[in-house]
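Table S5 (text form). Sequence records supplied for joint modeling of the three-component complex.
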Amino acid sequence: MSVAVAIDRCGKHFGATRALEPTTLSLAPGETVVFLGPSGCGKTTLLRIVAGLEAPDEGGRVLFDGVDVTAVPTEQRGVGMVFQNYALFPNMKVAQNIGYGLRVRGASRMDTADRVAEMIEMMRITDLTGRRVDQLSGGQRQRVALARAIAPRPRVLLLDEPLTALDAQLREHLRFEIDRLLRGLRITTIYVTHDQSEAMALADRVVVFAKGRVEQVGRPRDIYHAPANAFVAGFVGQMSFLPDGTMLRPEDIAVVAPDVGRLNAFVVSSQFLGDRVRLSVEVEASTLFAEAPPRETFTPGQVVGLAWHDEAVLRVGSLAAPA
Amino acid sequence: MRASTGAALAAPAAIVWLAFFALPLARLALEGGDYLATLSQARHLRSLALTTALSAAVTLATLLVAGIAGTFLARQRFAGRSLLVACLTLPLAFPGVVVGGMVIMLAGRQGLIAQASDLLFGERIVFAYSIAGLFLGYVYFSIPRVVLTVMAAAEILDPRLEEAARTLGASNWQVVRDVIVPGLTPAFLAAGAICFATAMGAFGTAFTLATRIEVLPMVIYSEFTLAANFSAAAALSLLLAVVTWAVLFLARSRAGLVSAAA
Amino acid sequence: MRRRGGGFHAALAVTVLAAAFLVLPMLMVILVGVTANWFAGPLAGLSLRWVLQVIDNYGGTILVSLQIALANLAATLLLGVPLAYALACAPGRLARAVEELIVLPVAVPGIATALGMVLAWGTVGGFRSHWSFILAGHVVFTLPFMVRSVLAVLRGQEFRLWDEAARTLGAPFWRRFFTVIVPNARGGILAGSLMVTTLSIGEFNMSLILHTPFTRTLPVGLADAYASLRIEVGSAYTLIFFALIVPLLVAMQVLAARR
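The corresponding structure-token record, covering 844 residues in total, follows.
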């Protein structure tokens, strides 16, 4: 059921502002692609173009399995969408919300009820069936929204920052669930987020956006270890710059005894983060981050050694000084 | 929503509006004839002056009474509060005819005031059919509207501003003067404008009290039905319409879209 | 505020007096309307004869008013709800301009509109003498209240998102309108309905000029009764008017309090 999605030169203007440069991407059937970037970078705009809620500027096309759907209205595209604040219908109970896409397409009451039951089981919300929307917590609403989007067996699944409205702990927990769900369903999925850890965790491929342009497309590991430019490098993770220009991830810099590593450095300050200690160290007048195991302690002014593997050095496409 | 869908949804209402409002108004404007001549007749000018003065007086009186009552009810809680609110806002959509009836009940020959004064002084005080009666009637139908507007505005006043004033040493009276009144002024202006515009165009009350008091709507009516002077009636109607619209427009542009009723 | 100084009592006094000013005449009207002979006083006896006399002489006006009010409700629902939806989706400037136009019939005094109606349509004989002539005036005057009421509710909610969600689930326009938009605008539709009905039943300024002897509305008849008949008749007539309108007004207050 799942289709290949091709985005061909889709750009978007809103009045005088260009929200999205003409962009070309292709998604394989069943692939999960994450659009990652800060707010206002165009990722949501492109998602909405694929959904049919926005039309691309002249010359842009969207194709599902090679068929041009650019002129096809949203209600006929067969996409499933989960909105940032879920957009559940308050005038319907949970079961009715989930069954809406089926009822609207003329499915019989029995078939709808069966499918709704299936969804409720899949999302593990069995005790919520008869509840009204305002009686649900954020995490519960999110599951209902997912169930509703998936119930009509959409060809493409679109998720617009579905976890952003939840608190950190819930986010992490649900991230696993969504990952499991997406792997199981194997629907072509576009997932929009500004959270890089979500992107890394869920994506088959990541598309990094900034200011309406695609900065890089690639697998999570490639983006993380071989960022195309300084922006991507900085957005996707923390960076440490050595005086000679070498770039490393703080977690790749090991803190060892003085003179045992490749360099010595002074400790400026240290922060205990629970699962590790983040150190701010100074080397020849430049400051950088390094990390140490959580049970170690440091004092400002202390001398430490820094060590790293050659493979950990970031190879960035075009080097620019960090802002 | 596509523009064509929006236009299609709005079309039926637009057609009705054009046919039964825009067209009639245009026709009215055409019938106006010699506007200047009509507007310079002494009777008409007197009527305009009288109506404006009456409306202004009504507005001030209503703002005072309803302002106090509305602010009070919005900010205090006590037994019987809901009853008072209900009493003050129930007559909200009463037509002028009914209000005229209320005035007769209060100030007519058999009215409350007449009977009370008869008991107390042996003499019946009757003023329903004078300008005082008209004034009373206009205040009657203006109070509910202003009370609602003021209550709504008072409810969204930020209590922290008052608290700040208190911590700086302001007395109750000073808080009212320096924080509450300035905070409510936009709502007062808006409500006052609506009150004024409504009073200018009020007709049913004067008609029912069968007074000879020449408020503008009454003059328009008599020109139309008694004198069959269509052009004068039309010209004056248009004048009245422009004045009330202008006042309401100013009120709306200053205070967002304030509801004219409830 | 918990302070109970002199200010509190003064304001309370003003409030109570104002409330009394509004309510006492109403109570009086009700009393007079059921008093056998007001000159003799209510203690001399109550009676329904005046009410019956009103129904006898003016019963037709009550029916006409109700008929027009019902038709007005239907018309404002059919015209106003879709319009409100269109305005809620429209860009800000366009929506505001259209709202200004819609509200004009409220800003313009009823006599002016009615005069214009007579001048513009008075020559169409069949229309002029039919109750729909008055209905037209009422619709144009009450429509803004329905639109504003529904619009206020639509604007305060995420209905645009629900509309998009329903689109992604495959619902075509009218399906979305009736299953998602209208149910969630219920409160505004109800409040608007009560308002337009109340306004229609009580409308006088236009109805006086638009009516004919066969299409007299309740308020027009009421003015006639006050002018020409005993105070008991006018009061009984007003009593009947209250019986129609006060339940609607109370319903509006209850609805407003619940929101």
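Note: Chain A has eight helices and 17 strands.
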